[in-house]
Amino acid sequence: MDCADLQQALAAARNFSPQGADLGVSEIGVGNINDTFLVTGQGQTPFILQRLNRQAFSAPELICQNLDLLSRHLPAERIATLVPERRWAIPHLLASRQHTLWWCDSNQDFWRALSYIGDTITLPCLNSHAEAMEVGRALAIFHNLVREIAPDSLHVTIPHFHETPHYFQLYQEALAANPYGQPPAPMVACHDFISDHQDFITTLEDARARGELQVTTIHGDPKLANILFDASTHGACALIDLDTVGPGLLLYDLGDCLRSCCNPGGSSHELSLSRFDIDLCLAILQGYLEKGRHLLSRGDRKYLLTAIRLIPLELGLRFFTDYLTGCHYFKTACPEDTLQRATAQFRLVASIEEQLPSLEVKLNALLGIIDSTGE
Prior knowledge:
Blueprint: H1 3-14, E1 23-27, E2 35-41, E3 44-52, H2 60-73, H3 76-82, E4 93-94, E5 103-104, E6 110-115, E7 120-121, H4 129-146, H5 164-177, H6 185-197, H7 203-209, E8 215-218, E9 227-230, E10 236-239, E11 246-249, H8 250-261, H9 278-292, H10 298-324, H11 335-354, H12 356-367
Antiparallel strand pairs: 1-2, 2-3, 3-6, 4-6, 5-6, 7-9, 8-11, 9-10
Helix pairs in contact: 4-8, 4-9, 5-10, 6-11, 8-10, 9-12, 10-11
């Protein structure tokens, strides 16, 4: 990030800090969408400052309204009552000096400030069964906390988010608008992989239309980088990046969490490391079931394996479509990085499919599924 961006961030930070405070800003995190900074200074309680990507979020004000509703529903005192066994926090918005929950600069960049959850770490990858179980517990804790928030009381911040048929339609439109005479081999491989899986793409949405899956309030993006661990106890203590909190299927969250956490390649998108680790998957689900077994419907259990396959396919579709249309959505150093990200996700799907018989047996045993229709 260049000095001009840091100067913009500093100007924004001053709008969320007492006048005259001597502030410093430093970029943190490796998000694909927003720019995130830690604001510190003498006499200043540290806080998180973010510039939201208007390409991803066309109405960022709705995100702030969702976060405000979440904070009012779950103040710190209520969280302590609902989760007495551990430290747990939900970031809350900080008001600007103009008494608003966001601030726009002269470029119309959208900035917001959030409380900072200190003494925490994030994990680049999972290295143990214990860490994986903590991930599952964290997601279940979050789902338990937000389950009483009516999904229709929250704004949809990204229309059709996690609805895979929508992303397939965008991919088809990108193909029609950007024809390639002789595409390179990696593009051909991506096209072929998508073509081979297109009949599978509507499975979750078809199940929702039939009433087998119900819409609830979900996180939307529970990847490993968005889970904070207490620096001392190493217990999970927060889910952050709440921009996509809203209505959705519980399986969107479970599928995305497993996609992120069960891939040893992690966020590096290193092709040689892109594979699905069944042991990590089962440990995460074991942790989730400790606190969230009651949250899973018969339909959720029936279609969990589908979600595990479908969510990485969806992300691969999103990366590849962004590549075809000029890389305007995800942050990237060069276009080929986005193509490699797509390829890594498709390889992850292939790894899942190679292990389907074993994964299905182990999932059924863990979930207590006796047959394809029973409890």
